[in-house]
Amino acid sequence: MVYQRWYKTKDGCPLLIRNAVSDDAYAVTELDNQILLDSPFLSRGPGDEEDDVEGTLSYIVDLLSAPREAFLVALIDGKIIGSAHLDGCGSRKKMLHRCEIALGVQKNYRNKGVGHCLMDALLYLARDAGYEQVELNVIEDNVLGVSLYKSFGFQTTGKIPHAYKYSDSSYGDYLVMILYFQNTVSSDTMI
Known about the structure:
4 helices; 26% helix; alpha+beta; Aminopeptidase
């Protein structure tokens, strides 16, 4: 699915969201590995294997040709500061109505509306691809993430207790959140 659209951040900065291309593999890998270090809310953490450029490149290339899936990047001044992806939940007919999404934003650009713009783009593509529901998992303690998803109409439909075990032996619970497409996608931040 092809996507390219200009948005504005909360502070009025132009933000381009477009499909990731092969030349983005290195920058996306670096971003993902930095987010890995900056966020306790990811399934991977320090000590886990980092993403490599070859794996990122392969994923980007696969999704560029996928008719109902996408890998997006968010750029400010030509620099990739966020990424997001939309993946179908399976190829079986009974599951073709469902997709999963995920997104990440560089620490310095969080709370500026970049996640909101990435979510807007993902939901536009999901609706355009004919999906009826969008699913995601989020750690319950990720207050900003949960708030973002709720602002788009996602509902918590379940919880996976102790989904993460942190290095201090505490646990984090996963929330299972779903958006059914009876709600409308907001594009009020587009230029």
